[in-house]
Design goal:
This protein has 21 helices and two strands. By secondary structure, it is mainly α. It has a two-stranded antiparallel ribbon with strand order 1-2. The protein is globular and about 70 Å long.
Amino acid sequence: MEITNEKTSPSATTTSADLHSPARNASEAGNPLTAKPWTYRSRRIGPIYIPAYASPPFQLGLVAIVCFLCPGMFNALAGLGGGGQFDATTANNANVALYSTFSVVGFFAGTFANRMGIKLTLCLGGIGYFIYIASFLSYNRNQNGGFPIFAGALLGVCAGLLWCAQGAIMMSYPPEASKGRYISWFWMIFNLGAVLGSLIPLGQNIHSDAGGVNDGTYIGFMVLTFLGAAMAWLLVDARAVQRADGSHVVLMKHPTWQSELLGLVETLKTDSWVVLLFPMFLASNWFYTYQFNDVNLARFNVRTRALNGVLYWLSQIIGAYIFGYALDISRVRRSTRAKAVWAVLFIITMAIWGGGYAWQRQYTRAETSAEGYVKMDWTSRGYVGPMFLYMFYGFYDAAWQTCVYWFMGALTNNGRKLANFAGFYKGIQSAGAAIMFRIDALKAPFMNEFASCWGLLAGSLLVALPLIMLKVQDTVPLVEDIKFSDETIEEVMPTVAREDEGTKVH
């Protein structure tokens, strides 16, 4: 994690930390902060360094834990295929409703996050996950398919808010040189939630070869998602966050609904090149339906699906670590890194999905849905090959998501603009998921769904190439970031730079 140079002292005399304190910097800049002074003090307990509470690493850690407990549990459940049920039809219908509302709300969610603030936005988002999982507990008992569909539509609204706020924090809080690492830290903690969540059904169904999970699985997920929603209130306001160099996040000081709706339109006007990333946004959740329902659910019994889920999300942690840290290699210019990671993504798209094609040729929907079809167990002969394929699918997902976030973060450091970028990303991503869940609900051939995944991933990389070649700069000047805000350079610039400016004046 990022380590600050500030030190606290019991002395009443002025220290270096006092000179660089947020309260002092804020008052000089006319930018009052709302957090308490103790939130800006880093601590060390033995060999363990604890960043300041209001620092970007600590705040990102809190957001990651919220997502660990809310979307992480959702992913663990989704990874079982069919929401943990024997048949995927109800879950598919719920997910169509979910991603349909998500696609609409998500696209405009930057407006809500900028106006309502991070804490309220994240908390409302977390509540939706709790209700969604509760609907499957209800369905397990009374087979009322209407509740999961309603809960899915509600979760689409809530998830649009949560993921927009999360994306804005992850891309705007860190300094430019650390964005890849911050994305990887978040993705690793977040997916650890899915790993642990997948262990719940694995432990409860380890001696079962049934098709669906039991009530205890859903109850465990409900408790964890409720805790996640409540933890959102532990965050500080975005305006109170201070980086190690004394700089602050670029935001709107006085956002209104009108200013943020106009800001959404302005983002598309000033950064029109971002539309070249839209196909990558669309592809980023398109393949989940195929992997969860048409691979994991179609071919494996419940305990093996749970094991596959653990391995899938563990592989995501590995992928996020490798790509996140590689994207921050300081010896290589950022523009060069962008081109290199595009090439790596294209190569692994061909390699991993090429292996997936060989696997998919071995079975059809008609075969796996036939009465008496025996699903594969981890003790079955030939399990090791598809197990590794499923792990590579997880690795690839983390690589894709990490790179997309990094590409967006490389275009600007403005928190307001990045909230809109995150909204575009999650809205378009969810539209793709809704389409794919509907295709699967209509029982399209597995090979057709596979081909759509592979083709969209490869094609979207080609569409994004001009932006990556021409628009990713080695750095974005602060004067450019400040144009999309009502703040001044003096209010957000690093402490040292601010003091240098003061020396020049005097």
